[in-house]
Write a structure and sequence with these properties.
By secondary structure, the chain is mostly helical. It has one domain. Helices cover 60% and strands 0% of the residues. It has eleven helices and no strands. The protein is elongated, with a radius of gyration of 19 Å.
């Protein structure tokens, strides 16, 4: 009798698969969550790792879902955050912000979307009118600072960076991901 071959497991011993390879494999097996990730990725052109994290209900910069994603155990979370970030990315792309889909920029947008008091409509209005202030940056933190400066330009002052960091601390515990917190505990032993 022939055994069912698990192609992803078989290929783990060969050339390492990319996240796109894992996505394609699980989409072919009919897993709905993976189909949703693929549709979101195609629509927004946001980097795949950010799509995976945000559609699970996390921030774009969190890699908490990499292992479950590869193993076929990925599940969708609340899409509200992912949809908000997608709206902002597509708005930036519409206004010719060349780095709209840059990994660090997407992570920065994702981070500030959690900030208390953040109004995406204000940011969209500022991006549309102050596009020349949108400059490529070298880090996520620099993008966060740039977005805060643009958001606050001749308008209501909101400490986006501070509020976003506070939101991360509440969500992940002292600004760390669950994985980072576990690693710190393990290293302390």
């Amino acid at each position: 009798m022939l055994e069912k071959i698990d192609v992803p497991k078989l290929n783990q011993t060969q050339v390492p698969w990319s996240m796109k390879d894992w996505l394609t494999s699980h989409v072919r097996t009919g897993k709905e969550a993976y189909g949703a990730v693929l549709a979101y990725h195609k629509k927004t052109k946001i980097p795949l790792s950010a799509c995976i994290s945000m559609l699970s209900g996390d921030s774009a910069g969190k890699g908490n879902w990499n292992k479950p994603f590869k193993e076929g155990e990925y599940s969708l979370g609340d899409p509200q955050h992912a949809n908000l970030v997608a709206d902002l990315v597509l708005h930036c792309a519409y206004h010719d912000v060349l780095f709209a889909r840059n990994t660090y920029f997407v992570k920065a947008l994702s981070k500030i979307c959690w900030a208390e008091g953040f109004n995406p409509e204000i940011l969209k209005k500022r991006i549309a009118s102050k596009r020349t202030r949108m400059k490529p940056q070298t880090t996520m933190d620099n993008y966060v600072q740039m977005l805060e400066d643009i958001y606050n330009y001749k308008g209501p002052l909101l400490a986006l960076r501070f509020n976003a960091n506070e939101a991360a601390r509440k969500k992940y515990g002292k600004g760390r991901s669950k994985q980072e917190a576990k690693m710190t505990k393990a290293n302390a032993k």
